[in-house]
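hey can u check if this looks right to u? its 677 residues, i copy pasted from the old doc so theres a chance i mangled smth
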Amino acid sequence: MEALGLYSYQEEVVQRPLQGENIIIWLPTGGGKTRAAVYVAKRHLETTPGAKVVVLVNMVHLVDQHHKNEFAKYLGFPVVPVTGDSDEKDFFGKVLRDSNAVICTAQILYNAMINTEEGRHVELSDITLLIIDECHHTHKDHTYSKIMRCYLEKKLKNQGPLPQVLGLTASPGTGGKKVLDGAIEHVLTICANMDSAIVSTQNCLPDLTERVPRPRKVFDITERRPMDPLGDQIKAMMVQIHEFMALPRDVRLRECGTQEYEQDVVLLEKRGVSENNRMTAQCALHLRQYNDALLINDTLRMIDAYRSLEDFYRHRPTMDGTDIFLVGLFQENQTELRHLAQDSLGENPKMAKLESTLLDQFRAERDSKGILFTKTRKSVHCLHEWIRDNGALQGAGIKAAKLIGAGNGLSHMTQNEQKDIIREFRNGRLNLLISTTVAEEGLDIPECNMVVRYGLLTNDIAQLQASGRARAANSVYSVVAQRGGKEQRRELLNEHLEELTKEAVAKIQEMSHDQFRRRILQIQKQEVIRQKLAEQKNHAKRHRFAAANVQLVCRNCFKSVAHGSDLRLVEGAHHVNINPDFKTEYKVGGQVSLEREFEDWEPGCKIICNNENCNKDWGFEMKFKDVAILGTLKISSFALLTPDGQITVKKWKDVPFPVDDFDFAAYCEDNHPDLFD
């Protein structure tokens, strides 16, 4: 075990939690919040008889990271890391009873709290210190909130004992509130949900500023694109689709190439499905693809925008006249689109500005290390390809790699692959990471002297966390944006919100102890009532129709393929069809590969609608205990035909009928009676 020492500002913020108070520690990214938490946990274990410490994180990779880099190194007591991949999750109650300290994802603890089986169940009273990392997430329906609601219900009913709570955050944020009163209310709500006061360094700011310097911020501004022939051509094609589909008079679509337009066509597609109007639904889907191309054209290269359309229309099936028109429209314009995309005169000036920004840094300091943050996995892929093929950037010695979260296809990256990339970055074989927001919070990335945000619209907390990655001396935080554009406006707004957060926390810290406690108790009581009402509303929604009275309809061809009563829920997460006749409704595609392995089941092949020329992807086959072959369904691939009409839902939790848990024994008895002979 290594010696555990704190800087003066860390010593300041741990004083109240060392006295047993519930506290949120607010320190900037890189300020050593986790180290402070280890110190509190160590003292707690040394001084509290029967102490049990649980550290909660909101991302799986943080379990191993906090265990290896902080708690196992400095705590001086055995620490057990538990993730969904470890056997310990299945008997979490026993693990906690036999351990001094446990680090796990919030979902692991919550599952144990609602599991009534002996050896698996955990009560909050089994824990003496609960540490919650990135605790600004403790609001709405985050798992942190579910755990703390259980805490608050017991507190308000005097059902103790309850653990001491220690929260860690780089910023509580303002919740999007733009005025001081709203920001104060948001921070108080986080405090109420955590049942904690909030502390920051007051007396040791010079030490914090010296050890955690803020990067120099620059706006690398580009002017508006003088001409956009590709964008103009795409918009002209979108107008043709508008005319073909004869938009209803009450439908108003906002400006093409904006997020607002995307919201409009998403609603239009839902309307088409609900009205059983395939023309409207399909046109809306295609319009969204063209709008995506415009957004890509605004941020990346023209050829990237063209390729996004080319990929969408490659092998696109045609079922009726609507498909023939839509596919034909692209094919008629494909040659012209490709020609325009390759004409350098219309190229995106933001790309040239990004190139000069990177060159300025890497030419000036050959040992530079940086992160280029962008919005989507698609843009990460395109920017990586651009840097790899750019002679000037390669000549400057830029060795770039993609860093993204888990996914499928070209966007897939496992946790081990993430670790490999970060290891290469740490040892200098890579010097630029091109990343989505996955690198903003949590990943153990070494100090950078350059952070670039490109094509991003995020909140104030995400902006703070991104800038906090530039921790090296004399580091630079660059925002590449069009003059007066939405990215520049959002960045300036976030600066305002950051200052507003500081003012809000300062006002709260000025409150007397009694005044603060009265206020958060009021919020807590209101939250418990709100949650009870929400649960009642959700229960009523989930039981609005009998499952047998709801049909699942393919969202592409509108063929009815199953009933709600055919569905069961596996492991609380996977909705499967147990009706053996369902196999006649689909054909199988390629093998599905998942990052992790599961104890009771494994994925099979994709399942695809077998209606002529439909080919809608419905999900995949699940092989359960080597016996059952079940269709695992994506709700986004279906509409629901209810007694009140056809509807769509975004997530399974929103379906208006109950789904029973999967009973493997009953399934085998019904479908494999030979097993019981």
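The chain has four domains: 8-210, 229-346, 349-500, 547-676.
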